[in-house]
TrEMBL record, chains A, B, C:
Similarity annotation: Belongs to the ammonium transporter (TC 2.A.49) family. Rh subfamily.
Keyword list, A-Z: Ammonia transport, Cell membrane, Glycoprotein, Membrane, Transmembrane, Transmembrane helix, Transport
Transmembrane parts of this sequence: 21-42, 80-98, 105-124, 136-158, 165-189, 195-214, 226-246, 266-286, 298-315, 321-338, 359-381, 407-427
GO aspect biological process, one term: ammonium homeostasis
Highest taxon above the source species: Eukaryota
Membrane topology: Multi-pass membrane protein
Subcellular location as annotated: Cell membrane
Name of a matching Pfam family: Ammonium_transp
Protein name: Rh family, B glycoprotein (gene/pseudogene)
Gene Ontology terms: cellular component: plasma membrane
Domain Ammonium transporter AmtB-like: 66-424
Main localization category: membrane
PANTHER family per UniProt: AMMONIUM TRANSPORTER, AMMONIUM TRANSPORTER RH TYPE B
Length: 463, 463, 463
């Protein structure tokens, strides 16, 4: 086996000179594939097709332009869009060396993922007579899926090339769509704000990938990871935009009317409460009582993650605030006490601390969702029960079983994320004889030689 | 009395070591109180409650989801939210030393204030059978009240700890709600964009507080207050966001239909006109004809403040532009000629110049509102009169009396702000024997020893 | 003639001392004129007038507040507003020396242009019984026209004073309105997103002006034009905001319902595809395979420009992605190979590369629009045909002639832009005997001496 590796390591040197072509070729090939698939599979839906929308209008006298889903969802879509491109992009600029990388690569991965996600989500749970129908709802869903990829990006920031990130996105988007299909379609779970599908999945997927790509000498370049004054202000732009628009994020694809309104409000209160918890515990865990920028920038957002599932339910502002407070607390404590342990003991280098912002709060959100579902009753929801729970038909409603399915959904999500991350990142097969780095199945080369056994020293993979 | 002070000054030393616990404890205690009060007092309103919204829908065949107030107000809410967190937060980053403080503390105070404001505003003018009903309108109102606190923050930036700011917010939010109750409910005044309730109140409240906290040696650290290239660009982010979204701010809680539409447009024209006045007078008052960044960043916004009351009325674009031009002019002249006098003669250190941006333009807006009300007639407003003026019933309309009540509202607001600021900031009772700083009733310790007579040297109060 | 120039060149020295008054006086005079014209010409439209809106409501029982155009267009307006003030403003901050100039002057020109555009657009195609009616649609149109001026600003950034920019805006807005009148009213062309009226017009107008203002020694100060780390991050704020909100830009004034929805979605896919093309070709044209910040910041937006005309048509996501891919490709290639040639051979100094971002993609968009129109059929559009093409009446529809009129519109636009730019920039009449700079009809002095023959050495024109 040693000879086998040596042979491939030498070929790495040849690859290195070809690397300047890898990103352009991958981008062009991917986009051409996307265009062909869109050409054969994608169609306008009723609300975006000139013929269909106006045909329907004539048939039914009560259908008006203001009933087009555009007016219900487009403002929320734009807020979500800002979160994906400004929020996630700038949040990661706090690392001074990676400021432009984080915004720029974020831009590239997101632009790819939203197209790929449209296809994958359409394929798994949006086919109509062999065609994928698109409209503002599919645009929001594609942005959601992109968000999950960007969460994982936060874990591997600083040790991955854009090529690797694109390959990761191909896998992650696909698995995201499968997991979403299992949860929403098969198990009938509620997860409008994506505590499970987006945050838990994205976080644990990313953590496994960063584990596989473990680089012991990353510590030596830690000065790169330090933040400076201006990078902190740029990062606050990301934080604040995520914080402000989270109510739109969680409510973007809930049902019209009271569910959308209620979800936005629950999220608003959860975030406000979470922010006070974050400031409190950030000062508390510091020996001098100083506030830690990283906590403020990240943990204050955990309240949005934690009401992603239950936000559309009758959680009440009171309940939302309790959930937000808990989320902020565990997030700060995670940054302080858990992240160092993850790195030293489990060799998980979580660059942006996504376990604290998306992982644990996501799991909390799933649990809160299961409990809130299990407590839901027709007495509280009235005629609105079925508008929140699709299976909430009068007389047949079983809150406990609903809560159970929510809990199963969390387990499925964790399983999918862990296995998916492992497959994507590749398993460890040895060490580079030259630089002592672990060698993985170099997932970013799959596309290049159409083989799964190519071994490449990670230190050569940087573009 | 001297002994009395000495005793307390010594105890300050002990406090100093405990200070690292003050912020965390205050945050936790406040949030716990908020959660308990929300649990006992706050309920979903008709538009956010699953049972109530869907019950109503069945009773009336004409009630559709698109009539939920969410679709009328939520886009405006998000714009207001951006103004509060990005606009106010980044506007104050022009002081290079306080860049992160301004964004970070802005975040903390706002997150607290919007929760506290929901309770106070609900308590004073939103109780329904002993419960506070919440929805997107209450969210906007809470953000408005928060805006007032942040205006005051602009006057004391650089000489207050987050603990002091939180205590100031507790008092100011409460008095804001009382003043709002007097104006809108008792006097029946119009003030949708808050020229009086938000801007005039916030500005004069803050000016009194900063007067009480006067620190003569603040001059010595004036180099801290200087701006640099990048801090100016960050501040422009704040300015531009406030400028762009001000039409949404002024129109966020006006009546549906023409008033909301008209308010947004009047504000748009007022701001455009104000901007030209600002550039003109900024260059004019400079000996070399150079533009002053601080004027551009602040005075260009005065046009939004000055149509806060009259914007929903038939002010016409023509009238809005005149008001905007005047507002920009007095604001620039205020920065140039009044601010230095306020500091040297009246010992009012107005760090961000809120008197020029919110104080004088707010008073101008109140006067414009009173005049426009006094000129309102059924001939101009037609059937729309009552949609702008709640008491504009046909046959009983008295424009002059309406104008009079608007004028009284301004006087009440000024009185409330001045007394409120004085009570909150505390009165001056002596000087610190050590550092010669004035001693005030240390308002930020009230929560700590449950007494109003604790005296603490301000120089020790910094966290 | 030499004497003639010498005489005027001396008078320049006197002017220099008066220059500090030029900007203030121009701003004040312009704003006063605007206010007078608004007072005599502008009225609220049906949707913003208290009497008219509520009168209509009573007449027709089916008219509800949610039918006010405010709710259909205002969220889009706010997105467009953000693009104009944040997007264009910050996009140009990549030049480190001109960071504040670009944001600040952008602010001034935009605030003026939107007022002047309201008048000009109303005058040429919005008069009702001698009055200009205003509402949210006129606000969007005014912002669109402003966008065109800001595009031209990108070509002359760094060699023009704010006074010159304001004078350019006076001319350009007027010609924009004339061109728009010819295209939309006379030729009946479709151009909702302004591929022709905004981008092509603004780009070629600006290129001619910068040609006239050619300064050979601009090269010497090229270090001023270099970008630095933070200026790149600020520029990315501009880029990302333009990118995210472009779907709102293109759909802001299309018909309600399916056209608005479809336009937003087509733009979304075009931009995503364009971004991948931009990353691919940016790396490909670099000898080391590195990404060029300027390409990412600009070319990724070309996809929005290129679907400005066809976006509202049944272009399909597939077609949009192809257009976006082409737009990104030609834009990057333009930056790499065409811009240097334009400067060295044609003496066109295109500071921000507007030819690559707006010029060529705008022409591409016009061509795509003409082709898509020529292919439009009742079979595809059904009853929706007339909602996209105003002249799409059943039985009388002639797709080929529609395509022809679209093509003519492009030619008209190019002609208007070139002639307009020449008139505005002034023709070259000689060289300054002192500094060898070319002398043009100094357009920014027209207002000052009410003559068209004043000659002023450009090197003295800087304020």
């Amino acid at each position: 086996m040693g000879d086998f590796f040596q042979k491939y390591l030498k070929s790495c040197q040849t690859f290195a000179t070809n690397m300047r072509l890898r990103l352009p070729l991958l981008c062009i090939i991917l986009e051409v594939i996307l265009i062909i698939l869109f050409g054969t599979l994608v169609e306008y839906n009723v609300d975006t097709d000139a013929k269909l929308w106006n045909a329907n209008k004539n048939q039914s006298a009560t259908r008006h332009d203001y009933e087009n889903e555009f007016y219900y969802r487009y403002p929320s879509f734009q807020d979500v869009h800002v979160m994906i491109f400004v929020g996630f992009g700038f949040l990661m600029t706090f690392l001074q060396r990676y400021g432009f990388s984080s915004v720029g690569f974020n831009f590239l991965i997101a632009a790819f993922s939203l197209q790929w996600a449209t296809l994958m989500q359409g394929f798994f749970h949006g086919m109509h007579h062999g065609k994928i129908h698109v409209g503002v709802t599919s645009m929001i869903n594609a942005d959601f899926c992109t968000g999950s990829v960007l969460i994982s990006f936060g874990a591997v920031l600083g040790k991955t090339s854009p090529v690797q990130l694109l390959v990761m996105a191909i896998f992650e988007v696909t698995l995201f769509a499968v997991n979403e299909f299992i949860l929403l379609t098969i198990l009938g779970a509620n997860d409008a704000g994506g505590s499970m599908t987006i945050h838990t999945f994205g976080a644990y997927f990313g953590l496994v990938v960063t584990r596989v790509l473990y680089r012991p000498n990353l510590d030596k370049s830690k000065h790169r990871n330090s933040s400076v004054y201006h990078s902190d202000l740029f990062a606050m732009i990301g934080t604040i935009y995520l914080w402000m628009f989270w109510p739109s994020f969680n409510s973007a694809i809930t049902n019209y009317g009271d569910p959308q309104h209620r979800t936005a409000m629950n999220t608003y209160y959860s975030l406000a409460s979470c922010t006070l918890a974050t400031f409190a515990f950030s000062a508390l865990v510091n020996p001098e009582g100083k506030l830690d920028m990283v906590h403020i920038q990240n943990a204050a957002l955990a309240g949005g993650v934690a009401v992603g599932t239950a936000g559309e339910m009758m959680l009440t502002p009171f309940g939302s605030m309790i959930v937000g407070f808990l989320a902020g607390t565990i997030s700060v404590l995670g940054y302080k006490y858990l992240t160092p342990v993850l790195e030293s003991k489990l060799k998980i280098q979580d660059t942006c601390g996504i376990h604290n912002l998306h992982g644990m709060p996501g799991v909390l959100g799933a649990v809160v969702g299961a409990v809130t579902s299990a407590l839901a009753s027709p007495a509280v929801y009235g005629n609105g029960l079925q508008r929140v729970f699709a299976d909430g038909e009068p007389g047949e409603w079983n809150a406990q079983s609903r809560g159970g399915f929510q809990a199963i959904s969390l387990v499925v999500t964790l399983g999918m994320a862990l296995i998916g991350g492992l497959v994507t990142g590749g398993y460890k097969v040895g060490k580079c004889s030259e630089c002592m780095l672990p060698l993985g199945k170099s997932f970013d080369l799959i596309y290049f030689k159409f083989t799964t056994v190519i071994i490449l020293c990670h230190s050569n993979e940087r573009i």
